[in-house]
User: Fold this.
Amino acid sequence: MLQLWGLLALVLDSLAIAAQSLVGAALGAGDAGHAKAVAWRVTAFSLLAAGILAAALGLGSSVLPGLFTDDRSVLAAIGVPWWFMVVQLPFAGIVFAVDGVLLGAGDAAFMRTATVASALVGFLPLVWLSLAYGWGLAGIWSGLGTFIVLRLIFVGWRAYSGRWAVTGAA
Assistant:
């Protein structure tokens, strides 16, 4: 599941890579308005792509896991993380797009702090609690989901604030 999640993240990150270049070029040229327009457009496309992927994975939930394994115990356990992944994808699509926007704007320090805070407050505690209380895959994927939601709050706030749209050298 984690490998599939990683693959989907890289697919969505392809839009973030474009955002890095386009936002960086716009801000370097002194055009904050264009950079903001690119940010919204890339985020919308990434959300759309993530929604399509989530819908496909949701609709294929009874068939697609069988393409990866025929082990009955794995197939029996895959349902919980599968649905966590499906639900998280649209949120992740937004997060990954805004990551590209912020990196293109040279706002890596904010992203570092937001990512570390999200991991320390959301992901790690739920993984540790999952281990301590035997929550299994549901606990681990809850941690990942919480991490994504916290990052969405942080980077969403930063994107909406416009504080990243600084023209000139970053």
Remarks:
- The chain has one domain: 2-161.
- Residues 2-161 form one domain.
- Residues 33 and 121 are 34 Å apart (CA to CA).
